[in-house]
Amino acid sequence: MKAARRAAAPFLLVLAAGLAACAPAMPESVVPGSVITVGWSGDLSSVNAAAAPTTGNLDIAQMVRGDFGDVVDGEFVPDEGFGTVSIVSDDPFTARFDLAEPAWSDGIPLDAADLLLGWAGASGYFPAVGEDSGADENGAAAEAPAVEKSDAPVPVLDEFARSIEVTFPQPVIDWQQAVAAPVPAHILGKHAFGLDDPMQAKQAVIAAIRDDDRAALDEIAQAWNEAFTLPEDGELSADLLLSSGPFQIAELDGGESGQTVALTPNPEYRGLVTPNVARIELVPAGDDPVAALGDRLDVAQVVPSIANHARIGELERKDFTVTPTHDGTMWALLLEPSGLFSQHDARAAFIRALPANALSAGGAGEWASAYPDTVSMVAAPGTRAYDIVSEDSGFSQTLGTAPDDAALERENAGLADGTRVCVLYDRRSEFATGAFAAAREVAKEAGWRITDCGSDDYAGALEKSRWDAVIARVPIPESPVQIAAQWGSGAPASITGQQDADRDALIEKLAHTTDIYEAREVRAQIEATIVRAAVALPIAANGRVTVTDRDVTGITPRNGALAPLTFGAVQWAVQ
Q1: Which chain positions lie within coiled-coil regions (predicted)?
Q2: With CB atoms counted within 10 Å of each terminal CB, which end of the chain scores lower, N or C?
Q3: Considering its fold, how many domains does the chain have in total?
Q4: Burial class of residue 28 (count of CB atoms within 10 Å of its CB; 0-12, 13-18, 19+)
């Protein structure tokens, strides 16, 4: 393995000499001198990912912040080394968040003040100046969270036990993730109020939130949104870079080719699993990360393509590990439920004439194994929710089953042989282009004449041009809010514009379902309404490939958009 070669000297050195000199010893699990270099396309702009949840900030937050658990393949996986979460009352619905004994990297313990601050941030107490109230409901990272101030009561604190109890206006499906500790309360209090004593700073934060002190909350909001932001030039105070996770930021370089972030183990980390690697360097992936593997890079995540298939295959033959996952988006054929496809029978006949596996094979080509098949618009393949949805939604028995005579079904829907269907797709996408070609071929057999309405300006054409169907890549919705944004009646980001009052009611029900098994069934019922509408043909989840050098172990990339690689960095090791 090679350490990262930098194009420029560090412009931000974040470990002050005084802090390094008094730091406790590294965990015994750390192998001295070990380095893993990762190709990274992110950019760290703030160490408060709750205020600025960009892709790069979330990647780093997964390494430098402890939390009560992570969502892996659709299920919440608790981290009892950080603490526990439990329901203490069903009416009113109340959850208790109990810290174990985590500490910030300056040795100050995490406590109820940190949790209360995190709750307030998630509850809309600290809006950024000029913040837009419109959220990116499709799940993409945004520059600032879009939440209105919660009308829920302020949590009850047990400062001795280091816990808080949160009472919700009504049950919520994601109750286990309602509280986190994105930034240290004692540091925020210091920068907001000028208080150097950690306990005084914590108490000032608690008092401002408990008393709803508008002037004090304004000071906190300014620090929350601005103090943790990295300046373009100059230094960020070392206290703003404290860590509660397994790693801490050690160095940040800015070069012409992009940003490099170096991380080292946090000596104060008290989790159940401690780091093995002495240094992880996230470096610019470059124009050709595959070529850099085994030399400049030890790990890289890449988009599967025609150009890199053979080269990645050669690396795999040399015992590099190749792990396919999906990136949290999916490909689907979506129908415009007006004009040509205003009638249900016409939509159903067209969808049944196009086998999804044929479109997926055409789009993925040699990378077929990297694009998981899917029959759901609201659940990710590989999750338990998907298993229930695929069994109960009715898709496979109806839209997913080819008719005995596809041409006759088209005729029975009142559409003549050679009916023209304008299909929009992104010509710049290998998958979309291949899927379109496959769709055009298979549709001929049923008497449909698919015409090429592809565009190099896909986003513009989607908005402005007229089309009957579109081969689209859309986020796989995880939360009820995201499902409502895509499939709710009248939602601005609605995928097809199709409205269904029953579906709206089911989405609302899902939002307040706390039982995981019941939630899966409700999600399947939501999917069933989409199947009945016959407006979408799920094709495949969008592939992503992680390639790892022979000398590196423990790399377990996660499906989805949130920190797909860095969330498991504590398990990484060098042979």
Answers
A1: none
A2: C
A3: 3
A4: exposed
